[in-house]
Amino acid sequence: MKQKLKWLSVFCLFINIIQMYFIYIIPKNDSVSGPFLWLVFSVPITIIQVILFLRFLVTEEHKKRQLLILGILNFVLTALPFGILLQYY
């Protein structure tokens, strides 16, 4: 279970990095495609991360430190696009 959570967290981290790249190439003046593309990327990632965090809380492993660091990093990388896009829209 711990290994599965770790790989899912690493996958979310990778998707977040791709999401940050797409935010920079989104046309800033287009009011339709920009937020739509952002929602397509960020909503599923946020849902996956909430599920991962809830599963992390249920896990009774002794070495949760790596999972906690990955989880915090994922949440920061998910919140960062929200802040960037709020500046433009």
Q: If you had to describe this structure to a student in words, what would you say it looks like?
A:
The protein has 89 residues and is an all-alpha fold. The chain has one domain (2-88). Helices cover 83% and strands 0% of the residues. Helix 1 runs antiparallel to helix 2 (33-58) and helix 1 packs parallel to helix 3 (65-88). The radius of gyration is 15 Å and the shape is elongated. The protein starts with a helix and ends with a helix.
Structural descriptors:
89 residues, mainly alpha, 3 helices, 0% strand, elongated
The SSE string, one letter per element, is HHH
Oligomer: single chain
Structural class: mainly alpha
Number of H/I helices: 3
- Report mean pLDDT, rounded to a whole number: 68
Gap between N and C termini, in Å?
A: 40 Å
Question: How would you concisely characterize the structure shown here?
Answer:
This protein has 89 residues and is mainly alpha-helical.
Helix/strand layout:
Blueprint: H1 2-25, H2 33-58, H3 65-88
Helix pairs in contact: 1-2, 1-3, 2-3
